[in-house]
Design a protein that fits this description.
The protein has nine helices and seven strands. With 332 residues, it is α+β, with helices and mostly antiparallel strands. The strands form two sheets. Strands 2-4-5-7-6 form a five-stranded mixed β-sheet, with helices on one face. A two-stranded antiparallel ribbon has the order 1-3.
Length: 332
């Protein structure tokens, strides 16, 4: 059992234990009937349990996504069913559930409704509070991971190996009549500028991220013997979409890092359709691929924090090629 599921189990158990103690004290305030009071308190909780867990399901499904009308309509129906369930249990089913005990409905419908409303409010507040704390915790972790990723990416841009390779390759092209040098220097400057000033937000325009990747790819192609074998294709309209900054970079870096240097075939595909992004990489294997590399581990962490269950990431080998596929829901 995971720590999260274990904690949820303990929280639920604690809630119902406290509930049982409180209601038992209320029911036995004036009279004590021994075991009958315990049984009565258990039976009384059945409709409350149905209401609370129904509320948890529909609250997470609709309220957290700001669909309030369907939530309140369904909860009205659930509340009416729980009220009917209370009377059904005490007037007709109690003898079957606990043979040897006989109960009748003690509280009026108005009093039962008050109990149901109280448990509805309490469970809503507890669930919203829990989600708020989880959200704050996730934001803190996300900020930490973003800082690590941005620092790591910045180091990769500023480390001597990258800069010397880029500048040496650019310098080799230099001549008074060669405008290519200025173009590549501009790409390097734009790449560093994007890293330093535009990746501090939780989400950035997809267009900006693609422009950065294109500059990064163009600079990496300079050190390849056959740069024409690197293909970056885009399908669909990338404008108007937002994406977590540098979320695609580790996959691109991995392709260049582990490509076959003698035959550097790399194919990168980005496709947008119906609010979904599909990014695929395909490179002919050279150096062994570290599936658990730091960059890919950090990528997995960021995806879990930012996109949670709204993404799919897969790595696999196919013949002499190493491939990755990332599917993101951009409608967050």
């Amino acid at each position: 059992m995971s720590k999260i599921s274990q904690n949820n189990w303990l929280y639920n158990l604690g809630f119902w234990v406290i509930s049982f103690i409180v209601l038992y004290k209320i029911f036995t305030k004036d009279y004590h009937n021994g075991a009958a009071d315990v049984v009565y308190t258990i039976l009384f909780h059945i409709s409350l349990i149905v209401l609370v867990y129904s509320n948890m399901v529909f609250l997470e499904k609709w309220v957290l996504s700001k669909k309030y009308l369907p939530y309140f309509m369904v909860m009205l129906v659930v509340g009416a069913l729980c009220l009917a369930m209370h009377y059904l249990i005490f007037d007709f089913l109690s003898d079957f559930i606990f043979p040897g005990f006989y109960f009748i409905t003690y509280y009026t419908p108005g009093s039962i409704i008050q109990f149901l409303i109280s448990y509805w409010i309490i469970s809503s507040l507890l669930l919203l509070s829990r989600n708020w704390f989880e959200l704050k915790d996730r934001q803190v972790k996300l900020e930490q991971e973003n800082s690590k990723v941005m620092l790591g990416a910045l180091k990769s841009q500023l480390n001597p190996h990258f800069l010397f390779n880029s500048l040496n390759n650019i310098y080799s092209l230099a001549s008074p009549e060669n405008p290519v040098v200025r173009n590549y220097l501009m790409k390097l400057a734009d790449s560093l500028r994007y890293m330093l000033y535009e990746t501090n937000e939780d989400f950035v325009p997809l267009q900006n991220e693609v422009d950065y990747l294109q500059d990064y790819i163009d600079l990496e192609k300079l050190r390849l013997s056959h740069p024409d074998k690197v293909i970056f294709s885009i399908e669909g309209n990338i404008k108007g979409h937002l994406i977590a900054p540098l979320i695609l970079l580790p996959l691109v870096e991995n392709s260049f890092k582990h490509v076959n240097k003698m035959n550097p075939e790399i194919e990168l595909k980005l496709k947008i359709q119906t609010g979904e992004l599909l990014f695929e990489t395909n490179n002919q294997m050279g150096e062994p691929v570290e599936k658990g590399g730091v960059g890919l581990i950090n990528l997995q962490k960021r995806l879990d924090l930012i996109y949670q269950h709204k993404y799919e990431l897969d790595f696999f080998k196919e013949g002499a090629y190493y491939k990755s596929k990332l599917r993101l829901d951009l409608t967050l």
